[in-house]
Amino acid sequence: MKSLWTALVASTILWSAGTADARPDTRAMSCAEAQALIQSRHAAVLTTGPNTYDRFVRQFGNECDWPEVPMSVAVPTRDGPCRVYRCEEPVFDFPG
């Protein structure tokens, strides 16, 4: 029985590893495609360069953990820099 359980767990791990989606690359998408992908998934981890990636979120949603909020950043896309959002702590820099 233990060997059957081990085989079942191993096959599940192999199946999930084989079907995992590759991390989408913003450089291969248009700006509209990148924004639509983030909007449809509510949050997505996207490649932004040869050795860089980040988690991007919708502007209005609850994907950020407190005290972080969605902050606008530019990512490279096929048609130039594209404004998307990622979770960051807000900076309160009041004059005075």
- The end-to-end distance, rounded to whole angstroms, is 71 Å
Largest sheet: number of strands, sense, barrel closure = 2 strands, antiparallel
Q: Spans of 5+ residues with little confidence (pLDDT < 50)?
A: none
Order of helices and strands: HHEEEE
Shape: globular
Strand segment tally = 4
The residue-averaged pLDDT reads: 86
Number of helices: 2
What is the C-alpha radius of gyration, as a whole number of Å?
Answer: 19 Å
Structural class: alpha+beta
Could you estimate the helical fraction of the residues in percent?
A: 25-40%
Beta fraction: 25-35%
Outline the structure in words.
The strands form two sheets. Strands 1-2 form a two-stranded antiparallel sheet. The protein starts with a helix and ends in an 8-residue tail after the last strand. It is of the alpha+beta class. The chain is built from two helices and four strands, in the order H-H-E-E-E-E. 30% of the residues lie in helices and 32% in strands.
